[in-house]
Amino acid sequence: MHFPEEILALAQKIVTDFTARGWMVATAESCTGGLIAGALTEIPGSSAVVDRGFVTYTNTAKMEMLGVQEQTLAQFGAVSKETALQMVHGALFRSRADFAVAVTGIAGPGGGSAEKPVGLVHLAAKARSGGLIHHEMRYGDIGRDKVRLATLNTALEMLVTLGQ
Fold first, then answer.
1. Of the four listed, 85, 88, 120, 149, which is most buried by Cβ atoms within 10 Å?
2. Please, which pLDDT band fits residue 1 given cuts at 50, 70 and 90?
């Protein structure tokens, strides 16, 4: 895939900075379908930084691969702060990474509701040492590709922030 320059610049910063510190990253992705891991692995030398990526598009995958609780999904839904937090915790627990980032959202064009509109994305990033960031983004119904790229950009920015 051809990633925009600003995304590649963020990915390069993560690979450079995390390599220098010996840190590794895991990704847990739903609506981005692996784009975060893909952007990071576009950068030469990323094998020193990218531990693994989980693409958990279905609720079953979120439960089986990341340990998201069925009760969480039933009570809050897949697109929620609670699910994103369980995804990021699961990615850290099931990897050797020092940092993890998780995203779950509604990229569209369909699938939204009044309560959870197209363009709603929950992102969480966590450091094994304890730092945690959550963002609820409402990008709007700007088109599937734009929602996914905006989510990718936000996720990489969160990793940069945690790594500082």
1. 88
2. low
Q: Can you read off the two tokens belonging to residue 117?
A: 């509109």
**Which secondary structure element, helix H or strand E, spans residue 29, and what is its range?**
strand 25-29
User: Which pLDDT score is estimated for 121?
Assistant: 98
pLDDT of 2 > 90? The answer is no
- Do 30 and 103 form a contact (C-beta atoms < 8 A)? yes
Rounded CA separation 138/151 (Å): 10
Quickly tell me which residue has 């609720």 as its tokens.
59
My answer on whether omega of the bond before 117 falls inside 30° of 0, hence cis, is: no
Q: What is the CATH number of domain 5-143+151-163?
A: 3.90.950.20
User: Rounded to two decimals, what is the model's pTM?
Assistant: 0.97
Long-range contacts (CB closer than 8 Å, 24 or more residues apart) made by 88-91: 88/28, 88/124, 88/125, 88/126, 88/132, 89/126, 90/28, 90/54, 90/65, 90/66, 91/26, 91/27, 91/28, 91/54, 91/66
Provide the 3-class DSSP secondary structure of residue 102: strand
Residue with tokens 């959870």: 116
Beta strands in 49-148 (DSSP E): 50-55, 99-105, 120-127, 132-138
Q: Strands 25-29 and 99-105: what pairing?
A: parallel
